[in-house]
Write a structure and sequence with these properties.
The chain is mainly β and 135 residues long. Helix content is 0%, strand content 40%.
């Protein structure tokens, strides 16, 4: 089990502290998972081995705690995720969601007892979309 990219929510007293959205790698295959306060879903499970290949992901995400949340993703130009619903944990009373989700990429694993792992990342970009949507 390996997380290669994740969107985490800064949330005081949220439980669990798992990413709200993650790209996971297991046995050569890619999975995309989503979590909120109540549910956890697998949004995508790739069927082919991706080792040794470049993967071109594009995510358009609206973080919200209700039905205004959205995740659309493509892999190598092909649509793989179209989700509508909660995309964050419900923050404690008095806290807002705005600016509380951050992205990080790398090799995240419970224990790295195996041989060294390598990941190459190229052309990462983050854009803010207008309220009318992203191009």
């Amino acid at each position: 089990r390996l997380v290669i990219a994740q969107w985490k929510q800064l949330c005081w007293h949220c439980h669990p502290d798992s990413p709200v959205l993650a790209i996971r790698y297991q046995e050569g295959r890619i999975r995309i998972t989503r979590r909120d306060t109540i549910h956890s879903d697998e949004l995508y499970r790739g069927m082919e081995d991706v080792r040794g290949r470049w993967l071109d992901f594009r995510f358009v995400i609206r973080f919200d705690r209700d039905d205004q949340g959205a995740i659309d993703a493509t892999l190598n130009g092909q649509p793989i995720v179209h989700y509508r619903g909660p995309t964050v944990y419900t923050p404690p009373e008095g806290r807002t969601i705005r600016d509380l989700v951050y992205f990080k990429t790398g090799l995240y694993r419970d224990a790295l007892g195996e041989p060294p792992w390598t990941i190459y990342v190229d052309e990462y970009r983050k854009d803010q979309c207008e309220e009318t949507g992203c191009r």
